Amino acid sequence: MKHWFSDGSFRTILRNASYLGSSNVVSALLGLLALACAGRAMSPALFGTLVVVQAYAKSVSDFAKFQTWQFVVQFGTPALERKDLARFRDVTGLSFGLDLASGAVAVVGGMALLPLLGHAVGLKPEDFWWALAYCTLIPTMTAATPTGILRSIDRFDLIAVQQAVTPFLRAVGSVLAYLFHLGFPGFIATWYISSLVGDMCLWVFAVRELRRQNIEHALRPGLLAPARRIKGAWDFVWTTNFAHSIWSARNAGSNVLVGIVLGPAAAGVFKVALTFFDAAGTPASLMQKSFYPEIMRLDPSSTRPWKLGIRSAALAGGLGVLVALLVILVGKPLIGSVFGAKYLEAYSLLQVMSAALVVSMAGFPLESLLYIASRQRAALVAQALAALTYAGLLVGLSHLMGLMGAAIAYFIGTCLEALFSLIPTVAAYRQRHTLSFHAPEEAR
Predict the structure, then answer these.
(1) What residue ranges are annotated as transmembrane (predicted)?
(2) C-alpha–C-alpha distance, residues 7 and 121, integer Å
(3) Hey, how many other C-beta atoms are within 10 angstroms of the C-beta on 170?
């Protein structure tokens, strides 16, 4: 372990993760406060409706969005290392163009599908217009270019600040809605405004940082022209887009599927369990966000990025065991005190899902390692197989076993995703001598 911490890249990953962690701890507490206010102020059915509305908009944005932050990191970080600002402008310009195009398509598609899917997800006619208005957030939710810019420039401290803005505003607004009995309209307005302001802050930080770095015209949107100058661009963006669409169906889409099968009240309980699960898995999430940009600065044909992945996985897996035990010990009284006795069923789900926590945390480096080896298609196949299996299990087991069936399906899906990603990662490591440094798009 002492040797691990002598590695500058490993220390950088932990430093950047600590930046994000410092804000995420506060954000998680504020998020719980907001959910607690909503859960106590409204009936389980109305709370579930709020969850479904938010999950629907997020599912649409996740399904349509390109992972432009990964594109900027994959192609822009090596360009900055070489001081090739023209290349970096092409990368960010194409990324911004993709954000604009996908945002426009997503908001139109989301609004058009809502009348058809509203009844299926449990929306009542009087809540339809609230859900339609919430869909106008979709364009800002699809944009990921500023996140990629800040990660490439190594300004994780600014990302940490931005990540606290939305939960802070949401918590303040939720407390006011609870105290003044503003009901469902007050809470959905709070969710909307906090998300919008938080997304806008990210753009402000990215623009300011580009000016500080003297990188001009980096946000001139383009599609065809910059793509022609970046070999492998379309292959990468489409593959990661499909992979993330699958991921969204497995995560944000879970609440929608549970709402369809078991109703809005069950979706609200499942949302509580997922909120605790996501909060508990924050350490691995933060390490992944700092791990990917860092290994893009390393030679994939050497053993260094692969050893860095093993060390990061071992550290995250060990933390996962401790966090899972903590969830089991304090989860029940915490849910009861925060949300009330009517949501205690979520603790039974957490007991099953805590095992998945260890697997997901230990497996976080796999996707990034596949990307540096230009095996993004293998990552897509792994996620697709796992997601299809999970979706089938979620619907089937929910019908048979209720919410406990949904928790079991979540655990199996997490294990399958890790297994399906591990197999091509091992193969890529064995063929690492064929990879090129700072030219990942050319490696096959």
Answers:
(1) 20-38, 91-116, 128-146, 313-335, 347-366, 378-401, 407-429
(2) 49
(3) 27
